[in-house]
Amino acid sequence: MTTADQDTPGAEDAPDTPGTAAPEPAGDDAPGQPHDGLTPRQARRLRIVVATVLLVTLAAVLALRLASRTSVLVVGVYGLAMVLCGVVIELSRHGRTRLGTWLLGTGLLAALAADWLLLP
Q1: What are the tens digits of pLDDT across the range 57-85?
Q2: CB distance 51 to 88 below 8 Å
Q3: Model pTM?
Q4: What is the 3-state secondary structure (H, E, C) of the chain?
Q5: Which residues of the chain have pLDDT under 50?
């Protein structure tokens, strides 16, 4: 037996003190701390799901609007809004969720305003 394998005398009698434990990592990566919001992966997936749902909804509204009246302007407004949803999905996949959120919000507000103001 080597000296490294032997227990030091009184080691089993010594109580474990909190000062001997390794310190926990500080910051947002600490495993014991609860997160207040979404993790970045959850935020990306949420933006992708929201943009996909809006994309499908805009396609349905475009089909309904084209059934009632055919206009190039209708296709243009709703087509650009659908392209915007696709861009937001790609931005979210590449980690640009804040930019995608702002772009989706302002783009959809612009599309709604164009629908209300421009389309007969």
Answers
A1: 989 988 888 888 777 888 888 889 999 99
A2: yes
A3: 0.62
A4: CCCCCCCCCCCCCCCCCHHHCCCCCCCCCCCCCCCCCCCHHHHHHHHHHHHHHHHHHHHHHHHHHHHHCCCHHHHHHHHHHHHHHHHHHHHHHCCCHHHHHHHHHHHHHHHHHHHHHCCC
A5: 22, 24-30
